[in-house]
UniProtKB/TrEMBL annotation:
It comes from Acinetobacter silvestris. Gene3D superfamilies: Restriction endonuclease-like alpha-beta roll domain. Pfam families: YaeQ (PF07152). This is YaeQ family protein. SUPFAM superfamilies: Restriction endonuclease-like (SSF52980).
Amino acid sequence: MALKATIYKADLNIANMDTHQYADYQLTMALHPSETIERLMVRVLAYARFADERLEFTKDLFETDEPALWEKDLTGQLVKWIEVGLPDEDKVKKASARCKEVAVIVYGSAVAEWYKRSAKLKTLKNVQVWQLSEKTTEAIQQLCERTMQLQLNVMDGEWSLIGDHAQAEVEWIQLQ
């Protein structure tokens, strides 16, 4: 019998003073049996970075042709494609041809090697690559609960994610 996904819920309140975005989002995420808590929480931060009422989590690890998140316009056309982890550069290149905006959120110790090998990405004008520091990914795991209340505060480029029992400073590094 195959293992089933574990459902996590997060009430995410965003107060971004830099972009004047103030909103609440109710997120429901499935943690795939092969997925780590670290990756789950990186998906939450990816959502927070590109938050929009039409942004949604996909089947991702269950469906290899899908990103971690995507946004579609009112006609169902893909507008935004967001990958989490170290995706295959051909998958990102295809997404770049299909979508107006593509983002890759990378983390972990293999980022430098992955980015060095991904020369094609540097030629794509509509692709952003953001790296989360290891310190950040360690800290956000402490915020994870099956049901989470998260407050994201952004001011002067500094991100702070606050949970019920812990807080994490979020460090973003734009690679592209």
